[in-house]
Amino acid sequence: MRFLSPGFLFALLALAIPIIIHLFNFRKFKKVYFSNVRFLKSVQIQTSSRQHLKDRLILASRLLALSFLVFAFSRPYIPNSSDKNAYQSQVVSIFIDNSYSMEAVNKEGTLLDEAKRRAKEIASAYSLNDKFQLLTNDFEGRFQRLLNYDEFQRAVDEVQISAANRDLSQIIRRQEDVFLGEPNARKTVYVISDFQENILPQSSVQADSAVLVRLVRLKANSQPNISIDSVWFVSAIHKPGDSEQLVVRLRNNSDEEAENIPIKVTLNRQQKAIGSLTIQPRTTSTDTLSFSGLKAGWQEGEIVITDFPVVFDDRFYFSFKVQPSIPLLIINGGLENEYLNSVYKSDLFFNVTNVNSGSINYSGLGNYPLVILNELAEISDGLIQQLKEYVSRGGSLMVFPELQSNQEGLKSLLQALRTDLPLEIVNAETKVTAINLQHPVFKGVFENIPQKLDLPVAKKYLRYTIQNNTTRQSVLDFPGRMTFFSDYRMGKGKIYLSAVPLNPETSNFARHSVFVPIMYQTALLSLQDQNLYHKLNKDQIVELPKLTLSSNQTLKLRRDKFEAIPDLRQNENASQIYIADQIRQTGNYQLLKNDSLLAILSFNDPGPESDLSYAGDRTIEAKFPGHKIDLITPAAGSMQGAVKAINQGTPLWKLCIILSLLFLAVEIFLIRFYKKSQTKAIKLE
Fold first, then answer.
1. Does the structure show a pLDDT above 80 at 29?
2. How many other C-beta atoms are found inside a 10 Å radius of the C-beta of residue 245?
3. Are 204 and 625 in contact (CB under 8 A)?
4. Considering all CA atoms of the chain, what is the largest pairwise distance in Å, rounded to the nearest integer?
5. pLDDT (tens digit per residue) in 124-178
6. Of the four listed, 21, 252, 400, 537, which is most buried by Cβ atoms within 10 Å?
7. Cα 434 from Cα 474, distance rounded (Å)
8. Cβ-Cβ contacts under 8 Å for 378 (sequence gap 6 or more)
9. What is the C-alpha to C-alpha distance for residues 274 and 370, in angstroms, rounded to an integer?
């Protein structure tokens, strides 16, 4: 047993006072004379012995009452075996889980409100001289310092729900960082959370052995939850006025079937489609919603479902761009090709530019998603270098060879692009024997796959090598897997390689039925895929096509009244926007260069918070191998006393007060009732 205030033990010297009083009886006696004192003498002896017993019992009760009163002021306690330094200066870090799942409710209200109240109760269990740190999922820099009691109370009131979420390893590492400046203090961390399964890290938590870890579990009422898992378009190409098909996937995170969950799709704040889904327990289900009538430009999308009482994941944001047109560049070695012009100029969606090989604007190549080389006899080193950079940055290049020259320029280009190389010119009629109907250029072309499809025939063609180290994907092949029309990848770009030029003297390809869909689809596929949305705290880097900023231009992210300046980093092929922790709320954000709209970026919750499954005690303890932790489930009422009991061990001052009052009651009993029984005994004599 130990004492919190041992100085009060000096008050035990006051025990001498009742002892002195009992040793020296200051009462004055009056003598009474009797004629025969023999009988009275025997009574006096018997009464005197009983009186001494009574006095000693009263003395003992007074001493014990006074002793336990002194002990109570000295605050005795039985220390825990692990808390040898329980009353040295203390530094306490308290983490409040403010993730979306803390919006769940129990009989105390929302879990976040209870967590804030529990944090205050924990702090009140410590001395006013102790220091505190408040930590949330946001990991704000302003809280990476120690606060006094009043500052901590005010900081707790400011905690709000956040889209961020961390695992236990990240939380405890962050809490331990604040202890580095207090090497001699007793260190304790508290984690107040509902302990969803996603809070547990994949590996074990490495906690400092000198740090006490206490996990406070809050329990929510059991409730079902439906969340929006993901969305995507059936086609990645968006044209003005075209019909769009949006696929919405919902997830049932409960063990009960969810029936007729309503879905609403809005674009630019106008409702475009509605639907509903029935989802089996612990599964996903998709619904395809159709709409049309979109104009060119960026579209701000939002999907809303109705799912009470958990509503934090009932909205999902996405954005995409409807292209007004696709600019195409055709570099001709001679005259313009009538077949290319007829395919692309018949559709206003394609904006075709024809140039001669001697008048190419190299700096403007990046403005064209697709560049077509039409029978170039000679290809300069400068053009080869520019085309290589163009493809690596995401451009698409289509090559139709010229069969009159020695192919040295083409060979140098294809070596730089790491494709198959020209081998020889073949003057023999050869028919295409294989078509890859699984290739993206044929997606949606055939309603039914034909059994015997008539394929192009070449009279004269360029034979290429078949190298194993290329990224070749065939579209149309000659016998023996020889290339007729093939697709290659380099960096983010594509190369389409043809074995024949587009003229009727060499083949019937330009007049064949597969020519139009191949040309049409390759142009559409040249548009780089857009990310419909990004995940908060996961996609902290957003990659965009190469941006060019002058010295006085800046980028801004804006949503309603919120505005932030992201960090822009340029690499060889693209621009990277570093979001970090600037974006904390889900929604659609405009990316502006000065006041010019560059893109709309959509951010959504990462997703794991929607699954309201909680980790068990044994599972949590298994994440702390070799480290003793305290798992606390607060009871009704304040947990201040429970924390004090853990800190101090077992306090005994209340027991001392009770014993002191008990012995005072014994003293009163002896004084009042013991005397009456003695008097009755004398009368019997």
1. no
2. 14
3. yes
4. 166
5. 989 888 999 999 998 888 888 899 999 999 999 999 998 888 999 999 999 999 9
6. 400
7. 9
8. 333, 357, 405, 409
9. 37
Residue 193: which residues within 8 A CB-CB, separation 6 or more? 95, 97, 102, 115, 199, 215, 216, 217, 218
Residues facing residue 592 across a β-bridge: 556, 597
Burial class (CB in 10 A: 0-12, 13-18, 19+), 377: middle
149-157 and 111-124 helices, crossing angle to 10°: 180
Q: How many CB atoms lie within 10 A of CB 161?
A: 17
pLDDT grade, residue 272 (50/70/90)? very high
CA atoms within 13 A on the CB side of 382: 7
DSSP summary character for residue 183: T
| Predicted confidence (pLDDT) at residue 47 exceeds the cutoff of 70 | no
Nearest CA-CA partner of 287 in 269, 266, 307, 303 = 303
Round to the nearest angstrom and report the end-to-end CA distance of the chain. Answer: 51
DSSP E strands in 97-240: the ranges are 105-106, 109-110, 131-135, 186-193, 211-217, 226-233
Pairing of strands 629-632, 567-570: unpaired
pLDDT band at 474 (very low <50, low <70, confident <90, very high): very high
The token pair that represents 213 in the structure block: 């870890």
pLDDT digits (tens, 9 = 90+) for 276-312: 999 999 999 999 999 998 999 999 999 999 988 788 8
Report how far residue 649's alpha carbon sits from residue 81's, in angstroms, rounded to the nearest whole number. Answer: 8
Look at the alpha carbons of 647, 648, 654, 655 in this order and tell me if their dihedral is positive or negative.
Answer: positive
Highest mean pLDDT (candidates 234-238, 350-354, 638-642): 350-354
On the CB side of 267, CA atoms within 13 Å amount to 20
- Other C-beta atoms within 10 Å of 429: how many? 11
* Dihedral of the alpha carbons of 657, 658, 664, 666, in degrees to the nearest 10: -160
For residue 375, give the DSSP letter.
Answer: S
For 508-565, the three-class secondary structure string (H helix, E strand, C coil) is CHHHCCCHHHHHHHHHHHCCCCCCCCEECCCCCEEEECCCCCCCCCCEEEEECCEEEC
pLDDT (0 to 100) of residue 120: 95
pLDDT-derived band at 35, boundaries 50, 70, 90: low
Enter the tokens of residue 255.
Answer: 């063990």
d(CA 497, CA 452): 25
Distance separating alpha carbons of residues 544 and 556, to the nearest angstrom = 14
Q: Which residue has the tokens 């409710």?
A: 105
Residue in the block written with tokens 């394609």: 350
pLDDT of residue 347: 87
Cβ neighbourhood burial of 635 (10 Å; 0-12, 13-18, 19+): exposed
Higher-confidence residue: 500 or 541?
500
Q: Tell me the average pLDDT of the chain.
A: 86
- The residue type found at 311 is V
CB 361 within 8 A of CB 463: no
- Is cis: bond before 309, omega within 30 of 0? yes
The per-residue pLDDT for range 569-606, each reduced to its tens digit, is 887 767 888 887 788 889 999 999 888 899 999 999 88
C-alpha–C-alpha distance, residues 15 and 210, integer Å = 43
Query: Is the separation of the CB atoms in 533 and 604 below 8 Å?
Result: yes
Handedness of CA 521, 523, 526, 527 (dihedral sign): negative
